[in-house]
Amino acid sequence: MFSRCIFCLKRRERADGSLDRSSEHVFPDALGGRLVVDYPCTRCNNQLGSSVDSDLSAFLLTKLRMHMLGLSDPNDPMPILSGRGTISADGTPVLSKATMAEGMTVKILPQKTIADNDDGTRTLSLKVDGSDLDAARKTISRFLQSTGQAAPTDADLDAILSQGRRGQYAQPNVNFQLALGPFPIRALVKIIYELACHWLGEGWFRRDAVARAMRRFILNGEKHPLIEMHGDSDKWPKAIEDLVSIYPGAHIGLMPMISAQRDCARVFVRVLDCYHCWMIVSKEPSNYTLPADGRVVINEPNKAVRETSMTMITVEYIHAMNLGPDSPLSLVVRSP
Hints:
Blueprint (H helix, E strand, L loop, with lengths): L23 E2 L10 E2 L4 H17 L1 H9 L12 E7 L5 E7 L3 E6 L2 E6 L5 E6 L5 H14 L7 H9 L11 E3 L8 H16 L1 H6 L1 H12 L8 E2 L7 H9 L4 E5 L9 E7 L3 E8 L12 E5 L5 E4 L1 H11 L16
Antiparallel strand pairs: 1-2, 3-4, 3-8, 4-5, 6-7, 9-12, 10-11, 10-13, 11-12, 13-14
Helix pairs in contact: 1-5, 5-7
């Protein structure tokens, strides 16, 4: 346990001499996180849980994936995706709605064009969804009355609608625009920060320049050149690729070994199988030591956490794949 909170850096001793211990889930509890540490003070833990962790848990893509994996609260309503889009073939505007239970439904949005003719008359062109004929009736009635005609009867409207041309889109491709809201990047930085604290210790979060920049970003959203979030897969260790194939849907954190030749320390994180990212957590890696084969934490949602070295994970791969230690197909975890 650290003598200071990893976020506010205040000492954790209470007036009565006891220590301020607060259980923190590195991967959010709402996402089945089971790696629990006691590094933050109670105040910081509560504040960040409601302002940072909750953003990740409530993010639409997170909720969708939790439902698909059967990990969401049975009392939570199933997420609904809705927004405006267009039919690819002709650009017709539509309103799309999709749920995992019912699939996608598409409704054509009303399109109205009024043209002034050379003879002084006006023409109304109207395109509506077949389920929206009542709205079409109202639009036609208002148009006729705006030209000085009497309000049409139901029979008049039926006659006008009967002259319309009916069409149908057979399995159209829809360009669907979905508003997701701000991406919860602070929550991912917080996970990486807590894993770095876990593996590099108090000296890192109290003195390292990258740790200081990460802490300010988590607490206040303050941007800094040292905050570099990456998602490019060509920089991922082979270990991450292997772990993803063995543990689909699991939360994974990995720190490759730190050697004297390496110019930075990095932490790689996967949350569920939605978010993959890595960050440089120190540009002074010679100040810290790790086991020669690095560290890995695997947290399958709502299951026990497995934390070990990358070498031990290699042995587990061989066992999990039912391969012998001499098999040419055995998976080897490499530190980049």
